TrEMBL record:
Residues 78-101 have a biased composition (Basic and acidic residues). Residues 31-87 form the DUF4124 domain. It holds the Pfam family DUF4124. PROSITE patterns: PROKAR_LIPOPROTEIN (PS51257). InterPro entries: DUF4124. It comes from Ideonella lacteola. The lineage of its organism: Bacteria, Pseudomonadati, Pseudomonadota, Betaproteobacteria, Burkholderiales. Residues 66-101, 215-236 are annotated as: Disordered. This is DUF4124 domain-containing protein. Keywords: Coiled coil, Signal. Residues 126-204 form a coiled coil. Residues 1-18 form the signal peptide. Transmembrane segments: none annotated.
Length: 236
């Protein structure tokens, strides 16, 4: 009986040794990928790496056992790459623009924490422009009075040719009136530009004071550029 038991034990051990690996144990050997495609001539190609003849089309990716593993998308054409690069640049510019707007909004809040501060800044910005407008208006009134006197002198001269000195004074008066009118128009345009600027800032500030997130309100409207400020003291 012992002999028969020993023989059975040997047979069982041999069978166990000859048995395949435990199927419950995971297979850790790397799975190599097979790439397959049909080229432009209709030939089916396979390789263990991406196939150069099929770079402009999809390539199927298979496991060694033939099961599907995935799809390798086609390589980008130069035009597609250019479009993608342009889209990336546009997105980056938009991101930088939003960041710049957020910085401007935070700076605006720091400069004008309330309505009183903004109104005071508007008044101070308008003061030199208002002074130049008032100066130009006073000078125009003087020139217009002088023009009336010159007109009286011209009438008193009758039909005789005007003296050279009178002609020179009339020409100087007309040139000075034109210059002052130009200054007046420029300063009125500058005052309007400043009002537009501070009105746009105030609308932005009201939203920010109410809790709007800096950089989320879009670009701040830019008023039309006004003419350069001219000093009335240098005008005739």
């Amino acid at each position: 009986m012992r002999s028969i038991g020993a023989v059975c034990l040997v047979l069982w051990v041999g069978t166990a040794c000859a048995a395949p690996n435990n199927p419950s144990k995971p297979n850790t050997s790397p799975q190599r990928t097979i790439y397959t495609c049909v080229d432009a001539q209709g030939h089916r190609l396979s390789s263990d790496r991406p196939i150069p003849e099929c770079l402009e089309q999809e390539q199927r990716m298979l496991n060694r056992d033939g099961s599907a593993k995935g799809v390798l998308p086609p390589a980008q054409s130069p035009e597609e790459k250019s479009r993608q690069d342009a889209a990336r640049r546009t997105a980056e510019q938009e991101r930088l623009g939003r960041e710049a707007e957020a910085r401007r909004d935070r700076a605006l809040l720091a400069r004008y924490p309330n309505l009183v501060a903004h109104d005071l800044a508007r008044t101070r910005a308008q003061e030199p422009v208002t002074r130049q407008i008032e100066t130009a208006q006073r000078r125009l009134a003087e020139l217009e009075a002088e023009s009336q006197n010159l007109a009286s002198e011209r009438e008193s001269n009758g039909k005789k040719p005007l003296p050279q000195a009178l002609r020179a004074r009339i020409a100087a008066n007309e040139g000075a009136i034109e210059a002052q009118n130009t200054i007046l128009r420029d300063q009125q345009a500058e005052r309007e530009r400043l009002d537009q600027q501070y009105d746009a800032e105030l609308a932005r500030l009201r939203a920010l004071w109410a809790g709007a997130v800096p950089g989320r309100l879009g670009p701040l409207p830019t008023p039309a550029s006004g003419p350069p400020t001219r000093a009335s003291s240098s005008a005739p």
